[in-house]
Amino acid sequence: MNGTGAARHVARAAVALLAIAVLSASWVGLGLWRAWGSVDRVPFDTGTAREALGVLAEVEVAEPDAAEPEAAVPAPAPEPALPETGWLADGVTRTFLVIGSDLEEGMTTERADVIVFVILPGNGEPPVMVSLPRDLYIPNPCTREPSRINANLNGCGDAATGPELLAIAVEDFTGIPVDHFIAFRVGGFVEVIDRLGGMEVCLDHAVRDGPGMPVILPAGCTRADGEQMLAWVRSRHTQELIDGEWVTVPGVNDLHRNRRQRELLVDILAEVGRFRSITELTRMAADLADSFTLDEDLSLGTAIGLAWELRGLGEDDIRQPEIPVSDYVTPGGAMVLIPEASFAEVLASAGVALAAGS
Hints:
six-stranded mixed β-sheet; single chain; 16 strands; alpha+beta
């Protein structure tokens, strides 16, 4: 075969490989679009919802939650917006509200069990992940009275969906706009973890959730499945097996649960880092399409870009400040948590610069 013939064969082979690559990419893309189309979507426009809530306030038709009547108590007023400088105003900072809910279907009659605010600075600063305790006692934008933050997921009639009302409450408390939300049902966390092959947990002692309950996790390192991880993250009455006796772990409360929740989300990001191709991501998206709900404006490109951007992040790669709180009993007898610092102070405690040059 002469040089010209060889060149033709090489050219044909290159064209064939290119055609295969294009067809393969098209097939992957089609599968991803199909999976994405099956994900539940909820309208999400906090600006319009704020206007509707303002109308309700003017005509005084919004009523407090009759099931939990509470008089006004010392609670922080919504703090003003953070300085319009630095990475918060650079036009590319993105924020996501990650919500975990007990109710399997619907977004208007449930309460949030997990609330994590994720901030992705646009200037190269590390991501920020802050857990908001579900018992955090702050003004409710619907009733205009203090309430647990998780109650906002009930929504406010036709004025605001659950995610919109919760996002507005978070915006009022933090001073930072919420761009998007991702809501997982309880079963969704289990499915995500199982799809990833479980999560490794290392403990000094076996643990369970209270007297008479089965062991959640044994001592040592375990590749825990979704059910085990969910039970561990949600455990309220944690006991450890020490020298043959079950001992209650002191001080376990929502703050401990928040730490476990953040650790779980970080572990999930690290596990996603094992993906080596868009095909793997497509398959996972298809498998988990029924596990979560998104806002209507979260585009396919944004979601895929976010997944690839955050893949493989570890605990040391994410800033995780905690909100200082104090216990409080409402006049109605409810145990709640009062924030002891502004959100700007919370961010500053983690070394997050709020203004240019700070």
